[in-house]
Design brief:
It is a single chain. The protein contains 10 helices and 15 strands. It is α/β, with parallel strands linked by helices and 317 residues long. The strands form 4 sheets. It has a 7-stranded mixed β-sheet, with helices on both faces. Helix 2 packs antiparallel against helix 4. The longest helix has 13 residues. The radius of gyration is 29 Å and the shape is flat.
Length: 317
């Protein structure tokens, strides 16, 4: 994949400088100015993702990366707290997302999860996302259009707890990230398609989980489960041991006042093994993920009875 070769540019890329990631919109004739040098956008246009770029004075370098949902999560401008890849991947798995699915999200926030949902459902699917805050909804809609996702993502300014999702009998999956998710659960029932689907609610507090689970059970949801994902990163380190030299001096005792050069001649340090262990600065609690299943909707009992009677006693012509 390459950045647009058009003079006007318009593509969003992720630039990496050291350990820093940030988004950059490529525009023909523009410059990316830093204290130690500048990068010309015209030099970036047409270059493949993953290439290293040098500043005009060749004192700085940066790498041009494709704006994948994972990198966008790490580089996006934060308007709210966001979900990260550990929770996002688990959500997409549990919601059973695949190309062609219709997904409802509330609220949009900074759009971290929305980009991952759009990739999961593909160009044949749809992500219907709602945001209560007007400015955040407008900013998210501009980002989706800038990233070429306006055909996949529909963004609305909407209070789903009082007004519902604005969708009926279409959703295959619903995600809730709300202060009071239990208020939106009754609206979710009517939003699901006749085949039912999966619902996920993200809540940072266990009291929210309790009230949400009670409402899910009241509304007829099944397979209600709550998970907490804790990321635990391991780091590797090399351990060394002292290996004394053997030979004619192997029985010679080492004196505390022996000179450093004599110590060096008595043995050497060697890399004996690699040790692994969890990092002490690991990320802790992020939130609770509650999942539930809406069973397929059944036709009314009267319709079932009529259909059975017609099969048993067909009307004669």
């Amino acid at each position: 994949a390459v950045v647009s070769t058009q003079s006007t540019g318009g593509d969003t890329v992720i630039i990496r400088r050291g350990t820093t990631l940030e988004p950059l919109v490529i525009r023909g004739g523009a410059q990316y100015q830093l204290t130690a040098g500048l990068f010309r956008h015209n030099d970036i246009i047409g270059k493949p993702f993953g290439c290293k770029m040098y500043s005009h004075n060749r004192k700085m370098t940066m790498t041009i990366l494709a704006p994948t949902p994972e990198l966008w999560t790490l580089a996006l401008p934060h308007r709210t707290q966001i979900l990260y890849s550990t929770d996002i991947s688990f959500i997409c798995l549990q919601l059973d997302l695949k190309p062609g699915c219709f997904v409802i999200e509330s609220g949009t926030g900074s759009g971290s999860l929305t980009h991952a949902l759009a990739r999961a459902v593909g160009s044949t699917g749809c992500v219907h996302t709602c945001e209560f805050h007007q400015e955040r909804a407008d900013a998210a809609a501009k980002e989706f259009a800038l990233h070429g996702l306006e055909d996949t993502i529909t963004s609305q300014h909407r209070n789903v707890c009082t007004d519902g999702f604005g969708v009926a009998n279409r959703a295959d999956a619903i995600f809730l990230d709300l202060p009071c998710p239990w208020e939106a659960v009754p609206h979710a029932v009517s939003a699901f398609s006749i085949d039912g689907g999966r619902l996920c609610s993200f809540s940072p507090c266990i009291e929210q989980v309790q009230r949400c689970c009670a409402m899910l059970k009241e509304q007829g949801f099944k397979e209600i489960q709550t998970f907490e994902g804790i990321e635990r990163t391991y780091q590797l380190s090399r351990k060394r041991i002292w290996e004394p030299f053997v030979g004619r001096d192997r029985h010679k005792k080492f004196r505390a006042d022996q000179r450093s050069e004599d110590k060096a001649s008595a043995g050497k340090w060697i890399n004996a093994y690699v040790k692994g262990g969890p990092r002490k600065d690991a990320v802790g609690h992020t939130g609770y993920l509650t999942f539930a299943t809406m069973p397929p909707k059944l036709v009314e009992k009267d319709n079932i009875t009529d259909n059975v009677d017609n099969l048993v006693n067909p009307i004669a012509d």
